[in-house]
Amino acid sequence: MSAAGPEIAPEGGLMRVPSERIGRLMDLVAELSLSVAETVRSPDLVGLELSHFETAVHRLMMIVREVQDAATDMRLVPVDEVFKRLRRMLRELERQTGKKIEMDIQGAETQIDKLVADRLYDPLLHVLRNAADHGLEPPQDRVAAGKPEIGSIILSAAQVGSEVRIVVEDNGRGLDRERILHKARERGFFGPDEEPEPAALWKVIFEPGFSTAENVSNLSGRGVGMDVLNTTMAALRGRIVVDSAAGQGTRVSLHIPVSLAFLDCIILRLGPRLFAVPVDMVAEIACPGPHDLPKLSAGGGQELFRLRGGSIPVCRLENFFDGMQAEPRSMDAPPQVIVVFQTSNGPLAVPVDEILDRQQVVMKPLVGRLAQVRASYGCALLGTGEVALVLDCERLGAVGGLP
Length: 403
Known about the structure:
By secondary structure, this protein is of the alpha+beta class. It has helices at residues 19-40, 53-74, 80-97, 114-135, 139-144, 177-186, 198-202, 225-235, 317-320, 393-398, and strands at residues 76-78, 101-106, 111-113, 151-160, 163-170, 239-245, 249-257, 262-270, 273-278, 282-286, 304-307, 310-313, 337-343, 346-352, 354-364, 376-381, 387-391. The strands form five sheets. A five-stranded mixed beta sheet has the order 2-4-5-7-6. It has a five-stranded mixed barrel with strand order 8-9-17-16-15. The chain has a three-stranded antiparallel beta sheet with strand order 10-13-14. Strand 6 (239-245) and strand 7 (249-257) form a beta hairpin. It is globular.
């Protein structure tokens, strides 16, 4: 490609454009979106009689939304670019482990953000190495267990709603619950008599330095691979789900947003603070009655939200975020609204004062000292010129809402 400009293909073909130009375009589209929203919500328009203004605004906002979607689509690439590199690496893993492995790739045409694709290879390689080294048994052990001599790894991708789901699944021995639990107890993650649920136990394999390998090899045993995966997924606003059955294999699912630039959110208000929550995380919105928020006498006084005969743990944002104090509520103040988030740890109830809006927001990462803000993906720039903190519901749920 010449430095003069993009490489032009024949009509109906493809045009190669540097990713920096697409990134610049997306930044301009984000600024356009904010500028339009600021203009149509200008206080200078209050009281003016504009007969066709609402119709024109609706049409303009629809066009801006389509431009956002088109700009996002321009940065999408097939996940096959990553999968092909992993397939080539499999031959090397066979040689190093002495195992026979076949890989089945599914959904390679699935589109992902180019920024995601650039960061996805190393974490997926760690998962693949673990599957080949720890998951799949040696050929003689597989035959003795009544399995095919050749081990199988399925690498698949699919778009589900507003996220891409990438799965690495093997038909090996599965995770060793007893060994992982023993190591987790040694590290202090669980008490000596505690028997955690599988979902809670599997999460410890992503802790820094955690490894059950007795010997360190060039493939695994250092306890850094899955930590790298966890760190990368957090940076990509993604989440990890692990499922394993003894003697049957392990399934690692990565859930990643399709776009990292724009996020469809519900805007919440608690006191003077604004928060944004990805729409996909909201399971329900309810108004609590006077007796729907009891506190347990044990467990540090954990507050619960009673909903249709069940109980959901409550996370009060004013208790979770440092420096945010709960404001006294007057007797005539409207009741708070409960937003129920669906997380991998189960539902989580969060009381807020008001549901303001649903809108596609421009995402900006938190940098510097702000990067230490807990349970947040970043900040959302709103059309009003205000800034909302985008909540990471998974991290809120991981600690049960307690600081």
